[in-house]
Design a protein that fits this description.
By secondary structure, the chain is α/β, with parallel strands linked by helices. Among the domains are: 5-35, no CATH class; 157-266, no CATH class; 271-327, no CATH class; 449-520, no CATH class. 21% of the residues lie in helices and 27% in strands. The protein contains 13 helices and 33 strands. The strands form ten sheets. Strands 8, 10, 11, 12, 13, 14, 15, 16, 17, 18 and 19 form an eleven-stranded mixed β-sheet that branches. The longest helix has 17 residues, at 379-395. The protein starts with a strand and ends with a helix. 45% of the residues are buried. The mean pLDDT is 95. The structure holds zinc ion (5 copies).
């Protein structure tokens, strides 16, 4: 019988627990137990990923200007999409031998800077130049970690969705605005945690509902207004009376938040999570410490990972099996330490590879196998050399660890690590990591946001020419908390059309600030052990409910947090 074990994290020096299930997994894939705690492991993967910071630079092959996630400080070659995917160059020309006198990561760091990388991870997409870590999108603008979506803007984790703007984690949704964590919804605005719903406004956890406004915790209802049942006529009358002027929408958000907080909520957002812990989880079985993990089983310590089976330590992945320490990789199996690699199996410590198997320490390969550091071997030679390198990496204590932050291709503040584990410039430099000072923005504002028309009806097409100031620049306090602020922004024509179609006011903040505020609406990606707050009498308890759970609502928060049974007894 394996016991759980407490270890000290080599990075943050805090104690962490390795569970018996964890050990079973490490044994199965033959890696030693990790030396970093789950949070530091997440930070390490996140620091390998720039989602949102786009730069203009020239393709190192054809010389054309392009949009890229690599800023001017990146020293290696970066190719535009057509060049990278073309036969005009051969990644195998960079092949090199493995040096058994040096650590693996040191060699990979140098190798990474030699082999051309792709400007953005954005394949098989049409008319979606500003999308990253995405696939098979059409007419999308500023979307990341999204796939098979159309006409979407300013968001992340859009899957098979259409006409979504300023939203996060939508699956098969159409016409969504400022919404989070939804599936199979149609025409919804400012909603959270809903599915199979349509025509909802400012509502949370209202599955199967339609035509509701300001509601929380309803099931299969129609024409409700702040959880009060109205007639269809009364509902429609009130809806036409709503002012969609900018300031009124801001006040409505506040009023709704005050209303939602008075209602008990389940200890996690999501649904059908069997024997699982985390937040934004659904259709899961045996998932531990999952954040935005769905349709998964037997998977732990994963963030933004869907369709994972028997995996650990995934960040931003899709459809993985028996994978460990992966970032931005999917549709694969039996891999360790892969970054931005798709459709691979039985591969290790490689980056930007597509449709490969049995590769180790490789970069920018397509349809290859039995390669190490981009050098071709026979199947037999490959396996012998691979085992030798693994032995070497066990001695250097690299085997089973993800790429260290110090060798990330991105400066820390360009990565999503800065979103989840924010650090100051001094802190980053003190750790030996890279920081990037962006050139000061000198946009000439032509329209201060205060002068924006309050209602969309008063906006003319000339607004498309304006450079609008971002309201985060108004106060020092907001400036300090919105470090990615672009300071000013323009409206995209499709965006203006969307606001007009649904009578929505023009935002006063740039898309970077909107993203930051949207993601901050979610709970932190941590769990606390708590007891159910219900003190009503329910069939399973009198007095305070004894049930305990892991929740991302930390103890001092104002929400009334219930266990599943008490919650189900309360929602109607
Ligand atoms: Zn740690
Ligand atoms: Zn090019
Ligand atoms: Zn801003
Ligand atoms: Zn309870
Ligand atoms: Zn109860």
């Amino acid at each position: 019988m394996i016991q759980s074990e407490t270890k000290q994290c080599q990075n943050c020096k805090q104690d962490f627990t390795i569970e018996p299930d964890d050990f079973a997994f490490y044994d199965k894939i033959k890696v030693p137990a990790p030396t970093f705690c789950p949070d530091c492991r997440y930070q390490r993967r996140a620091a390998n990923r720039n989602e949102w910071n786009f730069y203009k630079r020239n393709c190192s092959l054809c010389g054309k200007s392009m949009v890229s996630i690599y800023n001017s400080s990146y020293p290696g070659p970066v190719y535009c999409q057509p060049c990278w995917w073309s036969d005009k160059w051969d990644p195998m020309a960079f092949g090199q031998d493995f040096d058994f006198f040096r650590p693996f990561f040191e060699q990979f760091f140098e190798f990474r800077h030699k082999v051309p990388r792709i400007a953005l991870a954005n394949s098989q997409s049409a008319n979606s130049e500003y999308s990253n870590q995405s696939e098979r999108n059409k007419n999308c603008y500023m979307v990341v970690a999204s796939g098979e979506s159309e006409d979407c803007m300013y968001g992340n984790w859009y899957q098979k969705s259409k006409d979504c703007v300023d939203s996060w984690a939508t699956k098969e949704c159409e016409i969504m605005y400022e919404s989070l964590n939804c599936g199979d919804c149609y025409k919804c605005f400012f909603i959270e945690d809903c599915h199979d719903a349509n025509d909802l406004y400012f509502s949370m956890d209202c599955p199967g509902c339609n035509n509701c406004f300001g509601c929380v915790g309803l099931r299969g209802k129609s024409y409700c207004w702040f959880n009060e049942q109205l007639t269809k006529e009364e509902f429609q009358k009130r809806l036409t009376e709503i002012s969609w002027a900018y300031e009124d929408v801001q006040k409505m958000k506040k009023r709704v938040a005050d209303f939602w907080v008075k209602h008990p909520r389940r200890y996690y957002q999501g649904r059908k999570a069997i024997n699982s812990t985390g937040e934004n989880i659904g259709y899961d079985k045996n998932v531990r410490y999952g954040f935005n993990v769905r349709f998964s089983e037997n998977t732990s310590y994963a963030q933004d990972a869907w369709e994972a089976r028997d995996c650990m330590d995934l960040t931003e992945t899709l459809d993985n099996e028996l994978d460990y320490e992966m970032e931005g990789s999917g549709w694969g199996a039996k891999c360790i330490g892969m970054a931005k690699s798709w459709y691979n199996h039985d591969s290790h410590y490689s980056e930007l590879n597509f449709n490969c198997h049995d590769i180790f320490g490789c970069m920018s390969l397509r349809k290859k196998s039995y390669c190490i550091f981009n050098k071709q071997y026979s199947e037999k030679e490959y396996h012998i050399l691979k085992e030798k390198i693994i032995e070497h990496m066990r001695k250097t204590k690299e085997w089973g660890e993800f790429f260290p932050i110090a060798i990330s291709p991105f400066p820390y503040n360009d990565t999503i690590a800065q979103d989840y584990f924010p650090l100051t410039k001094n802190e980053v430099i003190a750790r030996g990591w890279e920081w990037f000072d962006r050139d000061a923005r000198d946009y000439k504002v032509t329209l201060p946001h205060e002068k924006l028309p309050a209602k969309i009806g008063d906006v003319t097409d000339s607004i498309l020419q304006e450079i609008i100031s971002c309201s985060s620049q108004d106060s020092e306090k907001e400036k300090a908390s919105h470090l990615r602020c672009a300071t000013a922004f323009r409206l995209h024509p499709a965006e203006l059309q969307f606001y007009r179609r649904f009578n929505l006011p023009i935002p006063h903040k740039c898309s970077a600030c909107r993203l930051q505020e949207r993601l901050a609406r979610r709970n932190p990606r941590k769990l606390w052990h708590r007891q159910c707050m219900c003190d009503k009498n329910h069939p399973h308890h009198t007095g305070r409910c004894p049930n305990e759970f892991e929740t991302s609502y930390f103890p001092d928060r104002p929400e009334i947090v219930y266990c599943e049974s008490c919650y189900q007894a309360e929602v109607a």
